[in-house]
Fold this protein.
Amino acid sequence: MKNSIFIFFGAPGAGKGSLSKLCVNEFGWTQLSTGNLCRKHIEDQTEIGKKIDFDTKSGKLISDSLISEMVEDWLINGQDGHQLILDGYPRTLGQAEFLHDLLRNKLSHYDLKIIKLDVSEQILISRLVNRLVCSNKKCQAVYSSLENSSLIPKDIKLCDNCSSLLIKRNDDSEEVVRERLEIYNKNEKDLISFYNSLNINLIKLDVDKPINEVFEDFRKIVSP
Ligand SMILES: [Zn+2]
């Protein structure tokens, strides 16, 4: 199979993180998390890192062009021979256009595959307000306090992997969750019409089911 770059479209709580993690563990793919990459640049004090640090400290949003510069650097340097997953990118129309240019020019040896994670809003909200995350920054495992979830931890207070304390994120309250979904839906709409206008096919994946079943469906999509 030609090297592919996978983009997962899905609202917060749709399970992009869990699906990406399974692809990394089961298929040996490489995942880019823009959030982690930002932190790494800041830690390593790179030129990009210094700019990001400056923007965040002055209360500005990190600009599209800065994020794109960082993603380009990551994609071009040493990611050959892998299937790649972009997590959290592209998030805006400007980023999607940038990536499209990159794929036509410097990265023409990659195929772009867009997977759209389909889930009802009601399920999303209940997943998000019941989400628990590991407080260990190096681990960041995600759990659920929902009784029928496959992500329920063995001990409701502790991470299965590293035994750190599990916490609820402040932005996982129902009110904030509804706001985040609204913003997400608006951005996603722009991105989807962009890809539709280029006749790029979106592959739909039903994620209204346990993650292991979702992963089996996904496996059929990538290895028909
Ligand atoms: Zn942990």
